[in-house]
Amino acid sequence: MLPFVIDYQGRLAGQLTVAGITWGSMCSAHIGYWVDEAVAGRGVMPTSVALAVDHCFRRVGLHRVEVCIRPENGPSRRVAEKLGFREEGLRPRYLHIDGGWRDHLVYALTAEEVPEGLLNRWRQAKPGASQK
Description:
The protein has helices at 44-60, 74-82, 118-125, and strands spanning 2-8, 11-22, 28-35, 64-69, 86-97, 100-110. It is α+β, with helices and mostly antiparallel strands.
């Protein structure tokens, strides 16, 4: 596991964890995250996820990263979608949360999909970014 603290303007703003790291023929992991509502909507989480994915692909040597999100969690789904993660399907009753087994949507990305890096792609896609 790789736990990260998200610092925004000198204060704790969230957390991101890369977990379930599997080596061998899989070379994969999944990412979970949360962000303080006070900084939501400022690009903090997409930037943090992009940095973590680039670290996983370029330094750690992983091939695939997944994000599993409850279908009703629109803000988290938007993070994955903004970054270009591919929605792969539904995992019924995937995790036990708040007293029950909850469905999750699976989003994934492989290293080949972001040869220039996910952070670079995110920066280029943001409104007002200069396009090459």
